[in-house]
């Protein structure tokens, strides 16, 4: 016999999920606002990553959606039905945490079945669902093992299986790969995407790793000090970041604080600290926000900083000089950390052989240097308001 709780779970399952709407949700702790009001619509089947550094508000947002934290303002609707007033267990979402939170004394099979048993789902239906997700996460042959007998990646797959066996309308993942080594993170990243696609999940995924976010998500939400800095597809954020802050998360490791010397249309000549280069004013910058004499930030990817050969210095405009400090060999290229004459650190990747102490003359194609209005401490462009 199907219980009321089971009916509620099935009715809110992945097959009927349309959209989750966040209307101006925020969270404050006294005078401190950890999450400023923002709106977002999550469509069924989407994989959305909340991206940002520690303290930016991404885990606060996830926990507020889960119901683990009450909202200070705003509302959450699932397919038109308001759910922010419901306790976590009534929302029916699946959760996957940094720590696997598995029961060490229960087998893999019993860990996965735990939530179903608590909901009094029939034995036959429980067995069917557990067998299905064991096959999905490729752990059928490990079903009788205890968590302590599994690798970190296998334990994480058990945690994912335990979340999705309930057939939730939404799976919330809070940095689930942070406890794994680099090689295993790459493997598990592919596994999470595969499981998401094959099981038809809708996923909200918290991470501070931009490569992880780019490879997994259909859309990214970049947070800065509790505010949404930009929402868009990986391609939109990678190719057209709206601020130097977002650019830094999209691989522009070099963020140079300079001054605009002259601006002609969308091209700006910027100077400061022994640097003089020509860059492109980012398309998202408000008209007039970058003008002669204004403070700017220039974002450059490491691979776009080029070493000017000794014999070519008369033909190529040298942006600045630097001294190689740390050099790492990465097979086909070198990762170089260098110091400018003003003591600012820059990062470059080059196929050319470089040794610590080498004097480097560096240039950058104007199309590959994005110029933004300088940001205030709140992460907003000062001149743009």
Using only C-alpha atoms, the radius of gyration works out to 25 Å
Biggest sheet, in brief?
6 strands, mixed
How much strand content do the residues show?
A: 25-35%
Please provide the count of β strands: 20
User: How far is the N terminus from the C terminus?
Assistant: 60 Å
Provide the residue-averaged pLDDT: 89
Strand arrangement across the biggest beta sheet? 6-7-8-3-9-10
Q: Pick out the low-confidence regions.
A: 1-15
Number of domains: 2
For the record, the CATH class of the largest domain is Alpha Beta
Provide a descriptive summary of the structure in words.
By secondary structure, the chain is α+β, with helices and mostly antiparallel strands. The protein has 2 domains: 4-239, Rossmann fold, CATH 3.40.50; 244-373, OB fold (Dihydrolipoamide Acetyltransferase, E2P) (Beta Barrel), CATH 2.40.50.140. 25% of the residues lie in helices and 32% in strands. The protein is built from 10 helices and 20 strands. Strands 6-7-8-3-9-10 form a 6-stranded mixed sheet, with helices on both faces. A 5-stranded mixed barrel has the order 11-12-13-20-14. Strands 15-19-16-17-18 form a 5-stranded antiparallel sheet, with no helix packed on it. Helix 4 (108-118) runs parallel beside helix 6 and helix 5 crosses helix 6 (152-164). The N and C termini lie far apart (60 Å).
Which descriptors apply to this entry?
385 residues; 20 strands; 10 helices; alpha+beta; OB fold (Dihydrolipoamide Acetyltransferase, E2P); Rossmann fold
